[in-house]
Design a protein that fits this description.
Helix content: over 70%
Order of helices and strands: HHHH
Distance between the termini: 10 Å
Number of domains: 2
Number of helices: 4
Structural class: mainly alpha
Low-confidence stretches: none
Radius of gyration: 21 Å
Number of strands: 0
Mean pLDDT: 77
Oligomer: single chain
Shape: elongated
Strand content: under 5%
Largest sheet: none
């Protein structure tokens, strides 16, 4: 790859893309309406169950979120290390 190609897709561009993705994800997170994300069964169970049921449901959501986040972080770390090694070699 030429020098110009490396400069175009270098670390600066990757940082800018990561920052843009972070800003968009944060904006979506803060603009979300919480009631739209619940199915009818979950909503009924939470309305009738009380505070303990709501805490249990939130804990279940967190537990189900851990594996996909761990997989994503692992793939990202491997890709970052591979990219860093190839940058050091050139």
């Amino acid at each position: 790859m030429s020098r110009r190609g490396r400069a175009l897709f270098g670390r600066t561009a990757a940082v800018k893309i990561a920052a843009a993705v972070s800003v968009v994800a944060t904006a979506i997170f803060f603009c979300a309406v919480e009631a739209l994300a619940q199915c009818a069964m979950c909503r009924t169970a939470l309305e009738d169950g009380g505070g303990a049921t709501a805490r249990t449901m939130n804990l279940g959501i967190i537990v189900l979120l851990i594996p996909p986040v761990a997989i994503f972080c692992t793939i990202f770390a491997v890709a970052y290390r591979k990219g860093k090694v190839s940058d050091d070699q050139s």
